[in-house]
Amino acid sequence: MADTETTGKKATLARTVKDKWRAKRWFKIRAPGLFQHAELGETPANEPEEVIGRTLESTLPEMTGGGDATRAHIKLRFQIERVSGEGVAETKFVGHELTTDYVRRLARRKRSKIDLSIPVTTQDGVRMVVKPVAVGEQRLQSRLRAELRHRLADVLVEEARTKPAATFIRDMLGGELTKALAQGVKPLYPLKKIEIRESMVEGTLVDDAGPSGAPPLPTESSEESPAAPAPPAPVA
Questions:
Q1: 18: which residues sit within 8 A by CB, 6+ positions away?
Q2: Against a cut of 0.90, is the pTM above it?
């Protein structure tokens, strides 16, 4: 008799869970204008308020519609900030990061790696934290590393100061920002590789819409050709 009661309770519980799941609504999740409002997927909830604040990730090729697998190491982060009357969950871009294995491969043995974490403010007042990583062809003197760090920070702050947030982010994800950083440090020392390993946006972009009629981000790889051999540098 006890076994029968236990089985009945389990069946009732299973039906309750199943009914609660069926009662949930599915909300389509949409990317912000910088990514042409691309659909990110769906999420279930009983009420629209329940989805606000949820975060999700997507890779850059998935967002741009490109088939370039060489950029799959760039992960974009979004957060739902509101739900429209049509049941669409609108998101804001909150940052990006490179996969751990990709960053690990950048700095091989006997190479100098320079990590930075720089707070910047864009032309339209959006605050961000940007974390570049730069790699030298060989081990560098401590003094030269310090000069490179200072120069990278100066260029990064200036690039943000002179551009609206949407343009700055577009350049950061598309590779133009790393080109500017490479040119900025070239008189000191031509670094082997520069990447933006992570970014964090504080607040919502003032204007995250891409240019009218043009894709907001490049769909082809922004990888540059290998840098010319760097001049010898004394080891610390």
A1: none
A2: no
